[in-house]
Amino acid sequence: MKLLRKLRFFLIFIFFSFLSINKLCCLVENAKNPKIIAYNNGNISAIWTKNDGTNDIIQSSYSSDFGQTWSTPINLSVSGENAAEPRFSNDNKISNLYAIWKRFDGFNDIIQFSSSKDFGINWITPNNLSDLGQNAFTSHITTGIFNNKIYALWARSNSANDWARPSATNDIIQFIKSVDGGITWSTIKDLSLVGQGASNPQISIDQLHFNLSTIWKRSNGVNDIIQFRFSKDWGDTWNDEVDLSHANRNSKDPKVISIYNSIYAIWTQTDGSYDVIHFKGSRDRSSTWLNSIALSNDRQTAKHPQFIAPNGGQFIYAIWARNNGVNDIIQLIYSYDSGTTFSSVVDLSTSGQTAKNPELTSDEYGKYIYTTWARSDGLNDIIQFSRSIDFGKTFSSAINLSLSGQTAKNPYITTDIYGLNIYVIWVRNDGTKDVIQMVYSSDFGETFSNSIIISN
Predict the structure, then answer these.
(1) Are 41 and 49 in contact (CB under 8 A)?
(2) What kind of fold does domain 33-163+180-190 have according to CATH?
């Protein structure tokens, strides 16, 4: 009996200890997935996901003094259910700011939207963009500089819960737009075809010619390929979809830029045994496409491609992480002739420890190129920065932006149109939880401020 009593007390102790540990774990209010937008007048806004002790919610904060001080974070999504994948966009001319994310409604993930008319100081109550009843995810948003135009994409299941037709269930790409700053929205339009799953949509706008370019990954029944679709009238009508990648190769991570009459696309494609970064361009608003160009070496795997096209698309800069046989390093390549030819690949990070998650930005003309990534220092991942002040011909040695001692990740970088003010944001563990940190430079990246914690 004594043995049974001791065993019972022991089990009770273990049970309540588990509850206490689980409760403490749930109270770790981690933040993640930050993004940042900068205006040219010193106003900056940031957005991220943060746990409130029960659920993940979308939060935002703003600075009106070039990043020196930040407001107390405010909640954009309603608490009670998880929200994730925040993205936002601005019109770059006035104070409008538009945010989009996915949130669970108790049954499915739906796409929600909110906007601010004052650089992110105040936000409207969020409203739903995607239809209820099926999961929607991986949204993307862009805005026009004229007439408060907003354009959004996401992937959503087209299942009608019809058990007699299970083959009819696929994830498809959907599109919606607003021409009045998000007050009213158009009818949702399906862009990808049914029959095979589609995901990872991206959208880009050419402000001058009212063009919209969209891109996504979709299965052709055998491989995942990259597809493209184009609109020349702000999304009212759409051309037929075009396959950009090789039909017999798996592809992923598509990105697209539409500028003037040119359209540029980049993605990762499996060539032989390795993933290679591919580029493809059109000079006539997608009527014809040039042959794809392999940008990274085909003897080691490359991933996480990002690119920009400043100076009206004449310059193109692309960045990615690539294995060198020992570690993943950050590499960059550039073109001065709208993608006809590219430079040799440049290694930005040093070998010896793995680097990942590269991001880049530039001034309006492409003279100042700023890059950031996460790299292990042997113990923890830290955020690093490198710059070019001569159109990408040479780059500075990498410097550390985050402190060592705790892991940092998910960097994101932006600058103003002059390249003078630079803002880098990331996630870093403070010893207890993951917080959002940022630094700023007011001298073209010559020096940076100490890191500032902007999440609570």
Answers:
(1) no
(2) Neuraminidase (2.120.10)
Tell me the per-residue pLDDT of 225-259, one tens digit each, with 9 for 90 and over: 999 999 999 999 999 999 999 999 999 999 999 99
| Of the candidates 270, 286, 291, 175, the residue with the CA atom closest to the CA atom of residue 230 | 286
Alpha carbons 389 and 123: distance in angstroms, whole number: 37
In degrees rounded to 5, what are phi and psi of residue 17? Answer: -65, -40
CA 333, CA 369: separation in Å to the nearest integer? 12
In the block, tokens 């919610």 appear at: 57
Phi, psi of 13 (to 5 degrees): -60, -45
Q: Which residues pair with 212 in a beta bridge?
A: 205, 231
Cβ contacts of 239 within 8 Å, gap of 6 or more: 229, 230, 231, 232, 286
Residue 216 near residue 192 (C-beta atoms within 8 A): yes
- Beta carbons of 223 and 249 less than 8 angstroms apart: yes
- Token digits for 83? 């929200």
Domain limits of the chain?
A: 33-163+180-190
pLDDT band at 93 (very low <50, low <70, confident <90, very high): low
Angstrom distance (rounded) from CA 452 to CA 429: 13
Pick from 240, 245, 344, 364: nearest CA to 295: 344
Residues whose CB is less than 8 angstroms from the CB of residue 274 and which lie 6 or more positions away in sequence, other chains included: 298, 299, 300, 301, 302
Handedness of CA 120, 126, 127, 130 (dihedral sign): positive
Here the tokens at position 224 are 């995942």
Q: Measuring CA to CA, which residue among 369, 334, 370, 330 is closest to residue 350?
A: 330
- Find out whether 141 and 118 touch, Cβ atoms under 8 Å: no
Name 78's bridge partners: none
Q: In this structure, are residues 399 and 373 in contact, taking their beta carbons and an 8 Å threshold?
A: no
